[in-house]
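Appendix B. Raw example, untouched.
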Amino acid sequence: MTKIAIVGAGGYVFPLRLIGDLLSFPALRESTIALMDIDEGRLERTATAARELVAHHGLPTRIEATTDRRRALDGAGYVVVTFQVGGLEAYKLDVEIPRRYGLDQTVGDTLGPGGVFRFLRSAPAYRAIAADMAEVCPDALLINYANPMAMSCWFLDRLGVETVGLCHSVQGTSRMLARQLDVPYEEVDFRCAGINHQAWFLEFRRGDEDLYPRLRETMIRRHLGRPNPDGLAADHGAHSDADRGDSVYEGGSERVRTEIMTAFGYFHTESSHHASEYLPYFRKTREMVDGFIARRWDYYEVCAAHDADEQTANLLARLKAELAPSLEYGAAIVNAKETGVPTVVHGNVPNRGLIPNLPAGCCVEVACLVDGNGVQPTVAGPLPPQLAAVNRTNVNVQELAVVAALEEDLAHLYHAVALDPLTGALLTLEQIRSMVDALREAEAEWLPAFAAASRVPAAVGR
């Protein structure tokens, strides 16, 4: 049976959730799951829970654990990436240093200085994985769960690695919209395409009924012109489980996404908190932030407050009680490839004619058919021009970051951050250069290609 390697297996809860998903498919229960992490203690926490889960359900699954990446990858049919290079220590720098300059990122893992630096820290690890895969598992599919999704998948494609990037924002938002309309989710059909964290619901229907007129009326009535409602469920950053009620993160605090819909015509896939980072309209002053997002949600603080042992124990108990899949697509892809039973996922893949009015080769998020032939992206066609234009403002940043990593070019690092819409709305070019240098200095241990490079003078371009 197949071997599935999980790189970054010591992460908070998610690797165990992924293992539970894999074991939910009977056809995958004879697999070998190889867990790899550089932190032996965290690795052992996940491995112990996984072995306990396998034993509880009496499954033949083999669980391996190693700090040797090459050993974990050897012979794998699937390589799942879930790491965060630098961990919370680096993440704290990603958000705290820009705040000194007046740039507040609620998450800081997708775009802007936080997203660019997280990606550049990850690039050497992706290079090493790609090199190992070419030698020990050349036919493996890499399933990327690490952010920034679009930059990482674009980079991996340029390295020649067959990659699909997976997120849960399409699944989560489509369910949230069905709840807002009080329509059973199983009756909803939709078409969604764009880029990760900024894909657009181009259609939202129930049978022959176009739900968009009611969706627009409902979201405007509930979320514009008044503060966000109280009494929302707490949200601790776990977005993989089905049919959550409206929370602090998603559903109950949707003024930003509703404003975007009224301006550009369509609803998109990432929360109002996160979406407010990708455009220049919502975070210019503290008062503006409070007006659009009345209840602060800070993902670094959420992550720093995690009790990993408690969360692992709680998830393990749930998986022992019921071995059912979450909303995540990863295990469904493995099952479809192994069994030939088709499924459809929304994956992040290279834009090879899929969305013709986005740049060729960039990473786009579209519906993909998966079966024994692998992941087969479907052609979404051109987006409405205003949606493609919004996406391109983000793709510009992604492209310059990817080129910076490929060429180890410091000038393009400056360019990437300077082109970020929110950064450009708040900071001067000199402030941006100063912020980038502060981040480079603080994160030098994870940025070997950029830490020692001399600063590119302001008057020098490439």
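End of appendix B.
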